[in-house]
Amino acid sequence: MSLYLIAVALLMCSGVPGLFLRRRGGEVAAGLMSLGALMGLTAAVRVLAGGPVATLVLPPAPLASAGLLTLDPLAALFALPVFLLTACAAVYGIGYWDNHQEHARTLRLVLGLLAASLAFLVVATHALPFLLGWEGMTISAFLLVLTEDRLPEVRRAAWLYLVCTHTGTLALFGAFALLSAATGQWTFSALPLGFAASGRGTALFLLCLFGFGFKAGIMPLHLWLPSTHAAAPSHVSAVMSGVMIKMGILGLVRLLCWIPDPPFWWGAVLMGLGALSGVLGVAFALGQHDLKRLLAYHSIENIGIILLGLGLGVLGKSTGHPVIQVLGFAGALLHVLNHSLFKGLLFLAAGSFIHATGTRDLERMGGLGQRMPWTSGAFLLGSWAISGLPPLNGFVSEWFIYLGSFRALGLFRWPWSLLVLTALALIGALALACFAKAHGAVFLGAPRSEAAGGAHEAPRSMRVPMGILAAGCALIGLAPMLLAPALDRVVAALGEGTRVQPLAPLAHLPSLSLLALVLLGLAFLLWRWLRPLDPGRTLPTWDCGYAVSSPRMQYTASSFADGLVAGLRWALWPRSRGGKVAGCFPADHPFESHVPDLILDRITDPAFQSLSMGAVLLRFLQGGKVHIYLLYVLLTLLTLLLWMVA
Amino acid sequence: MSLPSLTVSAQWVLHLLTLLLLPPLIPGLINKVKAVMAGRSGPPVLQLYYDLAKLARKQAVFSRTTTWVFLAGPVGTVAAGLVAGLLVPFGHTGTPLSFEGDVILFAYLFGLARFLTVLSALDTGSSFEGMGAAREVAFSALAEPALFLGFAALAKASSSLSLSTMLLGSGLGSGRMAGPLILVLVGWAIVFLAENARIPVDDPNTHLELTMIHEVMVLDHSGRPFALVLYGASLKLLVLGALLMDPVLPRAPQAWQNWLLFGAGLGALAVAVGLVESMSARFRMTKVPQFLLAGILASAFAFLLLLV
Lengths: 646, 308
Fold this sequence. Notes:
The complex is a heterodimer. By secondary structure, chain A is mainly alpha-helical. Chain A has 27 helices and five strands. Chain A has helices at 2-13, 16-20, 25-48, 73-96, 104-123, 127-145, 152-183, 199-216, 225-231, 234-244, 246-258, 264-286, 291-319, 322-357, 368-371, 373-386, 393-411, 417-443, 450-453, 460-478, 484-494, 503-507, 509-530, 557-567, 569-572, 598-617, 626-645, and strands spanning 54-56, 69-71, 538-539, 575-578, 591-594. The mean pLDDT of chain A is 89. By secondary structure, chain B is mostly helical. Strand 3 of chain A pairs parallel with strand 1 (62-63) of chain B.
């Protein structure tokens, strides 16, 4: 535990020396962060490998009950991505956001604070440190989003984020109050049997779902997520998307740990929300042409996949089917880790070509694969993994959830898990389409703008973090059985009181990695067969005989997605303007199309706007005249007096 | 000639040989049927073998805009197809590899092949290939749920998750299963036609680039990469064809009879595809999603029938 706490302290102070240094501030911060990350990872891996669970107990009586901070397997699993990704982001930040850029020093300082709050939050097992870590995370993330505060859209995004996340925190206060009323203490501990089915149990579940759901970005509550991720610097987006939104999942998982007998409908609600977030998340991603907004919508999709797994696990637990419980929970938890690896990788790769081209617009990129081969490879690997394709890590976690839902088909009278199955299949196909679009538009083909044509490869300090995350994706994909014992320990914590089965034989992990190796071997042999050919003759692309082709004639990202967006019109409500041509020799006509957010742009914004319009009607009450206010005071006092007498 | 029951290793060898050598025969058969139906003599049945041999000796031409991703498409298609071929049983002849949940891997391997093919099409920067790639991902988003709903129905019926027991399970022959099984096969037949780019979804013979899906994605491939593309397409016909036929093939007592049955089934499938192509026209592009939705509905109804 002390090793872990030193690591947290190191992360917290990592940005401080940089405040006073004229040069090398980024390197010092990255060094301190990496050192802290190494120590923290050591502590976490030790617990995951079966070491003793460490707790911290403080002497003062009200706090001394069971432990303020506990590094149990669950905390250790969530700590892995926290340390890995924040250290990678800090190293990446050296090249990406150097001293010349605005607020570079405070950015490093606050990034360290965010990392420390996250690391503190995952081990908190008491309401007070949990909320401290939660607020630290919220506020430091708010400051990080505000880095480019001269831009109005950045200020708007940061403000929206702050409002949303504090609304969620309000619900958490209520949830913790209910919790302490039920158990008589503020430490997290198991709730009595039967509590979950009671009215207060229902209230607790709904409050947690609302509070944690806001942070995680579950579908109707995701409204802050796309603009915030787009506004923040890319390495900050990587941390926010890879780690921070997972803290909402951590909260839900903690809740499930306390409940020995979750009702059936909890699982159904989680699965329903998961299917909604997953399918709509990827559908909205398809409609985006801002690359970072696209990636942000994919975070919502992946949160959906995680919820599908959690819901399946709850279903198994409430009906007493340990196999389904293990597969669902293991899939969800592994997907937490996997998503932070590949989403971190994707955001870093996105940052490195945004850095090179200065635009986030997919329609202005193209052909970067020839100019930035490393970044292109990293983005390809990330896309491959996030689409859940074998043999990378995204496939393994989805595989667990699939297995669980297939098994559940035969166990229940009604096929609840069919929802999981079809949702996953649809999400998989749409995610593939979306990443084919993103990778194709950015890296393949010919450059669509001068900026894209003049791009250069990222410096080594930006490539190394991408390499580390990519290696993580490949390792989990090729050798998932390395993680199986650790996952077993984490899932055991969730299955308190039930019989839990080991994962590796259940999911046939060795066969999976054998086939992954066969696939790679075959691909290598075929590659060798192709390679000796001399690619000496290079010609322009065959455009079916058309001689004067220009890069602007390429299929754009929007046209690539157009068929699917049109098919999903009922959910997306895309807007387009212009493009109508008339006459035999039409003049230039502008055309634009975009997909606004369903909740924010269609519901919340209009609702609050009409609310503030309605508030104008009440303005006469507050006219700024003191004697009127005095009259109010008098009237209030009189009313109170009357009420007391009566 | 009567062979004794084959040993495991002999089965492996036969399975691998079938998987590696048989595929190019299927398009040849289909084309022959089409030619006969049209009253032509048509190319020889072994034409694709000759084509592959010729392409393997030819020099490839690469577009200036392409990167290594251009080659990943053909390589990935063949590698993924071969691994998927290890998982699917060829009739009642035994599968080399079978474990619980291999259905999911099987389906996702085709996803991988599609992903890489689409990327290699986009790598050329050609608007035609982009068009084909966009259609491919849009239509497969509808084919995927149909495939998985079919798997779900069979998994529920056979209480198993491995491809070989699921497809060849003993419970499939009973009368109660007949209805759902027919519906699953209808759904999968639609998936089969769409995934293999056959009429009525796509026309493999068309040379009008604007209307093509699969063929237009490989316009720029030549030489050995193109040989892999053609071979990969025929491999897909074999593997998905085996998936489609397995539930209806009867079990024979002798191993060699089972192999014969499988061969006969494959021939029948090729003839059926040829007949469909001869007798129907390609759908308008806007009709294709409706056709694929019919596949989803057929599989979903199969599942519903199992519940009552």
